[in-house]
Amino acid sequence: MAARLCRLRRPLTAAFSSAAAAGAGQAPPAEPLTELRQAGGVRTIVLNNPRRRNALSLPMLQSLRRDLLHDVKSRELRVIVIAAKGPVFCSGHDLKELSSEDDVKHHSQVFELCAEVMTLIQKLPVPVIAKVNGLATAAGCQLVASCDIAVASEKSQFATPGVNIGLFCSTPAVALGRSLPRKVALEMLFTGEPLSAHEALMHGLVSKVVPEDKLEEETMKISQKICESSKSVLALGKATFYRQITQDLDTAYKITTKVMVDNLTLRDGQEGIEAFVQKRKPVWSHSQEEKK
């Protein structure tokens, strides 16, 4: 599919970092806050405001949500990669949006939209990969933890430093606490100290750590492997994984037992088995239709 770029979005105002104030008063960026391109079943969404450290301002969150949802039911879309320009993957919320100059209603809007985007990632019918090359802090760390897979360069770091500025990272803690052992997550939240890429790998925040010059290659390798499978089967599997993971053991097995039976009724469920028996490559329909 030909490359596609998203339309111009509202400019970002500031980043969740002490360096953000240095950019105050500057002209808004001439480029969109996110870029969308898609080819070979892989959609790449690039956070595109390195000047503001790719902060998750309200406009940035709106732009990211649009790109995630764009034509998401298309059979041609098989996997989504979230990447970023600049040395900071994402610095978290825009602190200027959280100042006392804005009312509680606006603050609620920011956090509610952020929560919507984070939960949306796990509700999408395709796998979502975070491609991290740099620092991911606060809600930026939350974004990485919310993705299905995360591949990071060796120079990447992850932190929840809100406690150091009087704003505990409570919403990032939701995703972080579901990705990391509790004591590791709480140490990050209580101290604000960063994890290195290899520490993040050891504790399960990221899937793989590679040299910076291998990051694109490894991310595409995973993406292309996903593209070899049936979209309908992956969609069923992803939804079931997140549904069962919060249940007790008996309930989880009841859910997944039924889903295995449902999977066998899918056209692609039967195609895969027939292809295996016949020793041929399966021809996927990527359809939710049942086998007639």
TrEMBL record:
Keyword Lipid metabolism in record: yes
An example Gene Ontology molecular-function term: hydro-lyase activity
Matches recorded under SUPFAM superfamilies: ClpP/crotonase
A GO term from the CC aspect: mitochondrion
InterPro entries xref list: ClpP/crotonase-like_dom_sf, Enoyl-CoA_hydra/iso, Enoyl-CoA_hydra_C, Mitochondrial_ECH-domain
Domain of life: Eukaryota
Alphabetical UniProt keywords: Fatty acid metabolism, Lipid metabolism, Mitochondrion, Transit peptide
GO biological process: fatty acid metabolic process
Main location: mitochondrion
DNA repair as UniProt keyword: no
Subcellular location: Mitochondrion
Signal sequence bounds: none
Function: May play a role in fatty acid biosynthesis and insulin sensitivity.
Family indicated by similarity: Belongs to the enoyl-CoA hydratase/isomerase family.
NCBIfam families: PRK08139.1
Name this polypeptide is given: Enoyl-CoA hydratase domain-containing protein 3, mitochondrial
Species the sequence originates in: Junco hyemalis (Dark-eyed junco)
